[in-house]
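Note to self: user wants both folds in one dump. Writing first protein now.
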Amino acid sequence: MILTEDGKRTCDLPLTEAADRFEEDVLAADIHLHGYILLSGRRIVRETYFAPYDKDSLHRMYSVTKSFVSMAVGLLVRDGMVRLQDRICDYFPEYTKGVTIHPWCQRMTIEDMLTMRTCYRGTTSSRYPSEDWTESFFRVEPDHIPGTVFAYDTSATNTLTALVEKLTGKKLLDYLRDHCLRELGFSETAYIIPDPVGVSQGGSGLMCTLRDVACAAYLCNHFGQSEGRELLPRGYMMRAVSNLVPTELQPVQDEKCGYGYFFWMPRKEGFCMYGMGGQLALCFPRKDFCLLTMADTIGNPSGLQVLYDCFYHFIYPLLEDRPGDNPLAFCADGSGENPTVFCVDGSGGDSPVSGAYLFFQNTLGLKTLSVLPAKVAEGSSREQELRIGSGTREWPVRCGIGFWKEGRLPALGGDCLGRVDWKNNHLLVQVYATGEEQGHICMDIAFIKEELSLRVVGAGAPLFEKWNGLASAKKMNNL
């Protein structure tokens, strides 16, 4: 087993006391915690379970499974079986030949799927009259252009699992065991629940022990390296746990920090395997530390946030950077620079995405979008103006770039505050009403060549709640 146990299951006194406080506060908040592990390097420094669970219990890990699928895809890439820019339709002719496949589906790449930037608003299997979940991924009508905005889509993971099993002739978990997991001491009893036609449920079906998750977390925390051996491709893993896609429209704080290849970014520098109900593997390579939890917070809206908050309050402040050379870059291009936040226009001139766009048919009723050149306002602050057309109406949205700007937006009932930020070719817009009706609209507008996709989330009075959905557009001069 790659992991080792501290005889006392504790380390220095401050961390011991912090772990005690973490546990006390989580339980005091009535969180149904089933178990947790604190992992420092290879060493288990705290491991606690609550009846009826113990270290040998197989527990449903839900979407933690997705990160295992990412590891398997990395192995396929390493061995030249697939490329990230390959189109997924090319691998499933049994579903795509002889039928009409939407052009947006035809464009979708393996990397689009890994980053949750498919052409769908969400999981397709629940919207298709067949038990074949993989088939549904190619037959459901798309919502928007792929490779643009983040929209959580479990069917992407299920389909990539089908790809792994088709190309290797092995079940996903067996394939990973043979290449890396068995060497780490991953249990032979663990399994992944199959879908109705026998494909492993790569989106949510992993049944394993918490120590099993700790083995995988240790490997990912070292970018696929273990005991001087490269069990997973290092370059792929560094990109997989990088912040590649903005996720600011997600509903809770620790889902707003970005996404890689089926890995979430937490509020502190690191990455996370995250499964519904409190299944967590919070990994911090600079600290060489992981928090692993299994729980049942389903139906408790604040439960997951309690786990995060207690960890960051009591334990994280005590963690120190590991000594020696640290290769962690957390960047997409390997340059050592952090590209996760940047202004598209860079030079201070007009944004290259400025122009008028015409929407394809969409459920939001949007017709046009104009992105006006950014301008300098009083005090040298830069402002961005959008004009959104719906039918015969067009309404302006004026926002500060990186700061809140007061304005008026009749479509939202009057006065408002607006702000935009640029991240990875995404224009992130927040507009909050400040009049009699309180509410807000947040937009993620992702640009790709001469096209864009828009995801909008509204909350508050009915006026705001109707603004929920996705749409895609193309620059008018290219129509």
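First done. Writing the second protein, which came from a different request thread.
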Amino acid sequence: MIELRSVSKTVKSGDQSLTILHPLDLFIPSGQCVSVVGPSGSGKSTLLGLIAGLDTPTTGEIIIDGIEITSLDENAMASLRGSKIGFVFQFFHLIPSLSAFENILVPLEISGVAGARKKAEGLLEDVGLLGRARHYPSQLSGGEQQRVAIARALANNPPILLADEPTGNLDSENGHHVVEILLDVNRRRGTTVVLVTHDNELAGISEITLAMRDGQAVRSEVVRSPAQTSREG
């Protein structure tokens, strides 16, 4: 469950204050798939960063799985992210000196997960890349790198997956493959998925679409009901 109560973000721009996100109330039940859409500069990525605890709001409260995160210190927030939130970036952010397998293994070992190596292999298999386990990021296509990044984000089995333009740097074929993986994560694992996207196909898989403009939510609509998603799956 994700809840925002009157959350806003204002920053200094020279001598003036610039409101990137106007006060927003938002409730996302567990297991939902939500797309956040809108033009560049509309506040989409700011919203995602606030939910992830990567940034702090100017006003309001953010509740993740019953925990009010805006009052947490840096160590507590890092611990919560490690256990509850997976994040997928547009530019992959894989460690170039580590293989695909090692990029997934590292967060598992840091968390002390039992059977880390076997789980890392399973995650690679889930995204169809077990045969590329020993390849380094420079030896993988953009689509393959993003699939490794998704597997890494799921390493600790977080109940929430946040993705910022996950198909933004991919061609249509690889983008479609990433869409299928994210849809499967939501359906099969019951993971709450929140996507920032310009991709109509990716937005179309969501149960809810939140449209933003100029730092404000201008429209929220149910695109697919959970029942529809279940029947189509």
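Dump finished. Worth passing along: The mean pLDDT is 87.
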